């Protein structure tokens, strides 16, 4: 009976965490460059239940010996193993802002083991000389004349240096070269990850490598000035998935209430001493 409480409880916790993940996706449906999170729910290892029988041997001494007979498997609950971002390309939205830049994926190699395609990112200056990576190209020129992202982090060029501009009147080519008038000022630094599912997701649409090492350059891509890559969240599907998670949570809750009523009867009625 108590094992049932743990099984139902684990199901409720898994659905609650899935609901929180879906709520975060819906809240960021309009965030440029946001990558929707996906969850993987797994079951705990099943238990093999056996029954202990006593068999009598037809001898003069009436010997008994124990015998195990299998009853079947019993599930011990589920848990949300992990959340992984979906790195599919989001739709482009025109903004007409010259410092807004959308990064478009070209044909990428697919990892044969995981089936995940490589992805490219803008590079940002992180703490202690590290780097952040993002798909949000909503850039601006700060008061010091440097190109920054919405969080104020410096955008880096292909040499890992900050990009200094005299104004936001710039032209960006498909390859990422930045021109002020007819003069090439810098080239946007683009990092490539052949296993983006191994990156660590941070706040504000940022990613970092787990070991802290910088990603290499590479990949096939193009850029479009005056556009932003929208979030790849499917709001309609996320709402449907949230309702499904809520119904699953509700079903587990009703089972928990049924267990509670059974335990109440066992204590107050079955165990009553007359």
TrEMBL record:
The keyword RNA-binding does not apply. Pfam families: Flg_bb_rod (PF00460), Flg_bbr_C (PF06429), LlgE_F_G_D1 (PF22692). Residues 5-35 form the Flagellar basal body rod protein N-terminal domain. The keyword Kinase does not apply. Residues 224-268 form the Flagellar basal-body/hook protein C-terminal domain. Residues 116-179 form the Flagellar hook protein FlgE/F/G-like D1 domain. It comes from the Bacteria. It is found in: Bacterial flagellum basal body. SUPFAM superfamilies: Flagellar hook protein flgE. Keywords: Bacterial flagellum, Cell projection, Cilium, Flagellum. Its main location: other. InterPro entries: Flag_bb_rod_N, Flagellar_basal_body_rod_CS, Flagellar_FlgE/F/G, Flg_bb/hook_C_dom, FlgE/F/G-like, LlgE_F_G-like_D1. Belongs to the flagella basal body rod proteins family. NCBIfam families: FlgEFG_subfam. This is Flagellar biosynthesis protein FlgC. The lineage of its organism: Bacteria, Bacillati, Bacillota, Bacilli, Bacillales.
């Amino acid at each position: 009976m108590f094992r049932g409480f743990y099984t139902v409880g684990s199901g409720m916790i898994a659905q609650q965490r899935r609901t929180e993940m879906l709520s975060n996706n819906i809240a960021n449906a309009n965030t440029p460059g946001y990558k929707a999170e996906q969850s993987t729910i797994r079951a705990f290892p099943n238990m093999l239940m056996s029954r202990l029988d006593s068999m009598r041997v037809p001898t003069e001494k009436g010997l008994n010996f124990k015998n195990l007979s299998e009853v079947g498997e019993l599930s011990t609950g589920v848990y949300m193993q992990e959340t992984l971002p979906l790195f599919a390309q989001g739709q482009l939205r025109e903004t007409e802002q010259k410092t807004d830049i959308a990064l478009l994926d070209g044909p990428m190699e697919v990892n044969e083991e995981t089936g995940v395609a490589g992805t490219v990112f803008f590079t940002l200056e992180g703490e202690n000389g590290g780097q952040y990576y993002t798909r949000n190209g909503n850039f601006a020129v700060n008061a010091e004349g440097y190109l920054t992202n919405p969080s104020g982090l410096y955008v880096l060029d292909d040499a890992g240096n900050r990009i200094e501009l005299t104004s936001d009147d710039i032209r960006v080519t498909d390859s990422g070269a930045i021109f002020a008038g007819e003069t090439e000022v810098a080239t946007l630094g683009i990092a490539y990850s052949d296993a983006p599912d191994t990156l660590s997701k941070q706040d504000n649409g940022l990613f970092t490598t787990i070991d802290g090492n910088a990603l290499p350059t590479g990949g096939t891509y193009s850029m479009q000035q005056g556009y932003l890559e929208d979030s790849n969240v499917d709001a309609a599907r996320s709402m449907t998935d949230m309702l499904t998670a809520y119904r699953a949570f509700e079903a587990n809750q009703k089972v928990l209430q049924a267990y509670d009523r059974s335990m109440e009867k066992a204590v107050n009625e079955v165990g009553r001493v007359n």
